């Protein structure tokens, strides 16, 4: 259980912060940048939810909860449970990736195949979902860079990779099942 009774602690005033295992690292470390960007994704999802119908809002709510799980996963560098730890580290599990894939497949079944790239936009919800997509791609780039230097849960990497695909397909759903997608016209303004 998380208890936040004091918001500022002054422990990071010199530019470092505590990871989930208690280790202190620079606030600009790759691990902190990775889970910090996951937090950014979560904030963009909150904005998208303002424009979503009940079904889409429920899916986005599940994603927001998963994003906290992902942040918790990324903030614990130790991949094995530590006997000193108060609790077992929270990790993204394959079932969370499977749920995203099932939702992508269900949404995608309603869409006609694309014959062109699409421009981010259309409806307000689609525009927000495309922002979610691009920020999640940035989070993925940071997480994969981190995985090149330190151990990272493979399911976490798969989750963040599927997530941007989910946002892309959901953006098309938000554009009248793709009928209101704004297509890219190569060289249109030459």
From TrEMBL:
MF (Gene Ontology): ATP binding; corrinoid adenosyltransferase activity
Source species: Roseicitreum antarcticum
The protein's name: Corrinoid adenosyltransferase
Primary residence: cytoplasm
Keywords for the protein's UniProt record, in alphabetical order: ATP-binding, Cobalamin biosynthesis, Cytoplasm, Nucleotide-binding, Transferase
Origin superkingdom: Bacteria
Catalytic activity: 2 cob(II)alamin + reduced [electron-transfer flavoprotein] + 2 ATP = 2 adenosylcob(III)alamin + 2 triphosphate + oxidized [electron-transfer flavoprotein] + 3 H(+); 2 cob(II)yrinate a,c diamide + reduced [electron-transfer flavoprotein] + 2 ATP = 2 adenosylcob(III)yrinate a,c-diamide + 2 triphosphate + oxidized [electron-transfer flavoprotein] + 3 H(+)
Alphabetical list of NCBIfam families matching this protein: PduO_Nterm (TIGR00636)
Pfam families membership: Cob_adeno_trans
Pathway involvement of the protein, from the record: Cofactor biosynthesis; adenosylcobalamin biosynthesis; adenosylcobalamin from cob(II)yrinate a,c-diamide: step 2/7
Enzyme Commission number(s) from the entry: 2.5.1.17
Subcellular location: Cytoplasm
Gene Ontology biological process terms from the UniProt entry: cobalamin biosynthetic process
Domain Cobalamin adenosyltransferase-like: 7-173
């Amino acid at each position: 259980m998380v208890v936040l009774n004091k918001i500022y602690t002054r422990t990071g005033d010199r530019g470092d912060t505590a990871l989930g295992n208690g280790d202190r690292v620079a606030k600009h470390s790759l691990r902190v940048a990775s889970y910090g960007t996951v937090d950014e994704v979560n904030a963009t999802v909150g904005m998208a939810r303002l424009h979503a119908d009940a079904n889409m809002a429920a899916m986005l709510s599940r994603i927001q909860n998963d994003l906290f799980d992902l942040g918790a996963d990324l903030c614990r560098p130790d991949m094995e449970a530590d006997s000193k730890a108060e609790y077992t580290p929270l990790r993204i599990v394959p079932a969370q990736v499977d749920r995203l894939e099932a939702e992508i497949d269900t949404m995608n079944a309603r869409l006609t195949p694309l014959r062109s790239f699409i421009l981010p936009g259309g409806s307000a919800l689609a525009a927000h979902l495309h922002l979610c997509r691009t920020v999640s791609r940035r989070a993925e780039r940071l997480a994969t860079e981190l995985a090149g230097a330190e151990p990272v849960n493979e399911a976490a990497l798969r989750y963040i990779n599927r997530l941007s695909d989910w946002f892309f397909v959901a953006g098309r759903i938000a554009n009248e099942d793709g009928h209101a997608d704004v297509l890219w016209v190569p060289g249109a303004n030459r």
